[in-house]
């Protein structure tokens, strides 16, 4: 991995820090220059190469060149790919127009008609839709498993299982999967393990260090961090797989755009700082929510009472647990509605990972189409609220949540009566 240590850090320090024992500081340092090339006289910040095509000379014809056409590769996109690979200590990274574009390319690379994929049951809705409603038309079979127990993955393996795809923490309940345990059974079966690491980023969790083959990112979320560029990335140490992913990208046309790549690389410069601050703010807000009478439950891996606390400490770096918190407001949908209506500072959107605190009500928003029993089976109750904690002073977020919860409960009784009347 490229390192730029100009000062005197002893090689022992560097070795310890690279041996999976990576401190947030080492990652913060790395994030500031990751992907950058060039030397004296070059621009400190790389440019945005918008050109769709690149000059060749007669001698090049027929031989491979680094840049020929921007559907295949582009210098601004390559800078982002180097940056993400360096951050995760990986050999390679391939980026796409969106997170789902990345997932589509991964599945088209690994799965053919008759092949089988295992999906963690608590997984991003778009991933479920891609497998259930699109790939199924091409003869790809799938099984959902509760991946909290690696034995469930083991039991679901079939001779034609080529891919196991999990997400930890899960959205929006923050249930964790033991990546190391799932990696063991997946590897033994000769399949590929992909982990959607969108919620934590390489600053908090490094799936490849835990035995996964591919880290999957919607860079649209925390990595770009400012809600200004869609993007997706697949990070891997398997260079043969990376070549296959690039072939699929060239063949299907899903590459990241240069402008979005540039914005995403700029986001990476402050990624460690943002994630650290968002994790700290999230913990403070989660602790406050835990003491509130009108809050039935709080899900956050940083809380001492989190059911998988030991696993959180094992697989998350530096006791940081990311910016996403979810909680159950008492009073069901009516209280939830009034709470959302009452928020003054936090923004109500279907999104996570931006600099502002964002709020989602999964039962009526992201999972509105999912039948109640199916929602509740994965822990999405009517009162569940998801927070993506931003960079505000947490005291301001707490006071906004406090006034909104108070108003929700003042109206709760009246709303319940109305709901009961409407249901008749
Ligand atoms: C948003 C998201 C995706 C999809 O990414 P897009 O960039 O919106 O296509 C995948 N996984 C997770 C966990 C996400 O939050």
Write a short abstract of this structure.
The N and C termini lie far apart (65 Å). The protein has two domains: 27-268, Type I PLP-dependent aspartate aminotransferase-like (Major domain) (Aspartate Aminotransferase, domain 2, 3-Layer(aba) Sandwich); 271-423, Alpha-Beta Complex (Aspartate Aminotransferase, domain 1). The protein is 41% helix and 14% strand.
Describe this protein's structure.
This protein is α/β, with parallel strands linked by helices and 424 residues long. It has 2 domains: 242 residues, Aspartate Aminotransferase, domain 2; 153 residues, Aspartate Aminotransferase, domain 1, CATH 3.90.1150. Helix content is 41%, strand content 14%. It has 16 helices and 12 strands. The strands form 2 sheets. A 7-stranded mixed beta sheet has the order 1-7-6-5-4-2-3, with helices on both faces. Strands 8-9-12-11-10 form a 5-stranded mixed beta sheet. α5 links the parallel β2 and β3. α4 crosses α9 and α6 runs parallel beside α7. The chain is globular and about 80 Å long. The N terminus is likely disordered. The site of pyridoxal-5'-phosphate (PLP) has 15 residues, from α4.
Low-confidence sequence ranges = 1-19
How far apart lie the N and C ends?
Answer: 65 Å
CATH topology-level name of the largest domain: Aspartate Aminotransferase, domain 2
Would you tell me the structural class of the helices and strands? alpha/beta
Kindly report the oligomeric state of this protein.
single chain
Work out the radius of gyration.
22 Å
Give a short account of the largest sheet.
Answer: 7 strands, mixed
In helices, the fraction of residues equals 40-55%
Q: Identify every distinct bound molecule in the structure, by name, code or SMILES.
A: pyridoxal-5'-phosphate
CATH class of the largest domain equals Alpha Beta
Number of folding domains? 2
Order of helices and strands: HHHEHEHEHEHEHEEHHHEHEHEEHEHH
Task: Please name the CATH architecture of the largest domain.
Answer: 3-Layer(aba) Sandwich
Residue-averaged pLDDT? 91
The gross shape turns out to be globular
**Strand residues, percent:** 5-15%
Can you count the helices? Answer: 16
The CATH homologous superfamily of the largest domain is termed Type I PLP-dependent aspartate aminotransferase-like (Major domain)
Count of β-strands: 12
Strand order of the largest sheet: 1-7-6-5-4-2-3
